[in-house]
Amino acid sequence: MNSLLKILFIFLLLTGLAAIFKNHFQIEFGTSDYWEKHGYFFLIFISLFPRLTLLFSSIVFGGVLWWLSFFFAPRFLVAYLASVAYWESNPILVLIAWSICLSGESGEKYIVSKKVRNYKQSGETFEAEFIRKD
User: Fold this and answer.
1) How far is C-alpha 54 from the geometric centre of its chain's CA atoms?
2) What b/e readout covers 63-98, taking b as 16+ CB neighbours within 10 angstroms?
3) Cβ distance 31 to 88 under 8 Å?
4) DSSP conformation letters of 52-66
5) CA nearest 7: which of 68, 84, 83, 94?
6) How far apart, in Å, do the first and last CA atoms of the chain sit?
7) Helical H runs in the chain?
8) How big is the CA angle at 46 (ends 44 and 49), to the nearest 5 degrees?
9) pLDDT of residue 82
């Protein structure tokens, strides 16, 4: 039930932000339909392999922030691009993109930090000899 409330909160937050951006800042979201341009395979691959799919697909790219998010938070980039392009026509798809973004990024960071913590606590020491070449 807790995750359902988080998803509902994300949806309401995105809806509120979209309304504020559209009404006060005159930012227009795309009105094209996702299913006219892409299919199920693209959806699966962009969820599982966001960097490869972004690199080898026909998605708009460029700019410093685009490349920074491509390297450091690719799922966030996918969710942002989905919000801008498909919010008007497919809000549920955008909600799914943001859910995958938040759960995937936090899940990866948790697993990596847990592995590093376990490695530091394992107490394994390595002996090595360093020889200086003159």
Assistant:
1) 11
2) eeebeebbeebbbbbbbbbbbbbbbebbbebbbbbb
3) yes
4) HHHHHSS----SHHH
5) 94
6) 66
7) 2-24, 34-37, 40-48, 50-56, 64-72, 74-86, 91-121
8) 95
9) 85
* 99 to 4, 20, 53, 80, 90: CA distances (angstroms): 11, 21, 18, 12, 15
107 CB-near residues (< 8 Å, 6+ apart):
none
Per the listing, tokens 């909160």 go with: 9
Nearest 5°: phi and psi at 84? -70, -40
- State which amino acid sits at residue 26: Q
Structure tokens at 91: 């809000």
Q: Express each pLDDT in 40-98 by its tens digit.
A: 898 888 888 888 888 888 777 777 888 888 888 888 888 888 888 888 888 888 888 88
- DSSP letter, residue 124: -
Crossing angle of helices 74-86/64-72, nearest 10°? 130
Which amino acid makes up residue 93? Answer: L
CB 32 within 8 A of CB 55: no
